[in-house]
Amino acid sequence: MAKRNGGPSNTEIDMTPMIDMTFQLITFFMFVMNFSEAEQDDRIQLPSSQLAKPAEGVIEKPITLQLTNAGSVIYAGELVAVRDIGAYLEREKTVMIDENREPNSATIIVRADGRAKTGEVQDIIRICQEKGFERFALRAQYDDRR
Amino acid sequence: MARRSSSGLTDKVEINMTPMIDVVFQLMSFFMCTLKVVSPEGDFDIRMPIAAAAAAAPDDQQVPPVRVKLSAAPDGSLAAIAMNGTPVADFDELRKRIVGLVGADSGPNSLAEKTEVEFDADYALKYANVVKAITAVSGKVENGQVVELIRKIKFTPPKKG
């Protein structure tokens, strides 16, 4: 009683568990955060495959071409018609030659929608081949169901 | 000195936690907002130089490519599969036929490593079917382990129609 009357009533909350939890949460989010600029577009519904296991190595400076269901290509965030990607690839090629890299050493990642026409994927590959690119990575979603 | 001895052990230095907790919560909300759930994706690597078939010198070690024809129904779904001209019922059978052709061994210098599969798909065929076909020929998952089959895959040139 004497204590309570003497000073201002001060209920102390033990902050330690809360701070511990919060730091743990921060650490979790920091680890889970994806810093790699993986180009993933919600407009693309990738076909799934149980063999499409994520690659261990990182593909160096890939060129990502995403083919939508409607048959247009998303290249660097903008929609381009399949027949027009040649001009963009030509630009990529010029940049690569400036950096002393051969076009055939670059990998073209093809993220095509599962409902897109196969012929359009082949058209993309053909246009890339005409520009000197020859390594392709057909991307699929990893599906671990048997 | 007198004060210290009189108050004894109960004397406590209080740190003001409020700014730290503010910052910590801000950081947490930043990470929570920027979190983007990335679904695992994998690649099928294909090396397809232009006109490689014509340019490549005939090689004794060369095994004739396996031709897989994928025909499309008018709506783009898969109508028929054929391997080297003979019809195949489904992708499971295609895989069995590939195993029958190249054997289960996929080590270095094996038949599976040397054999190449050429896909001839109809223009309108939905791409998901091609991925299923590539999955069927390139391996299978057995007890959680991937058993590789054929790694060399190519496509015929596209034909409009």
Bin the strand percentage of chain B: 25-35%
What is the terminal separation of chain A in angstroms? 70 Å
CATH topological fold name of the largest domain in chain A: Nucleotidyltransferase, domain 5
Spatial strand arrangement across the major sheet of chain A: 1-6-5-2-3-4
Q: How many domains comprise the coordinates of chain A? A: 2
Which term fits the overall shape of chain A?
elongated
* CATH classification class of the largest domain in chain A: Alpha Beta
What is the mean pLDDT of chain B? 79
Any idea what the CATH architecture of the largest domain in chain B is?
Answer: 2-Layer Sandwich
CATH class of the largest domain in chain B reads Alpha Beta
CATH topology of the largest domain in chain B: Nucleotidyltransferase, domain 5
Tell me the structural class of chain B: alpha/beta
| Integer-rounded radius of gyration of chain A | 26 Å
> Mind telling me which CATH architecture of the largest domain in chain A this is?
2-Layer Sandwich
What is the rounded Rg of chain B?
30 Å
Shape of chain B: elongated
- Describe the biggest sheet of chain A? 6 strands, mixed
State the strand order across the main sheet of chain B: 4-3-2-5-8
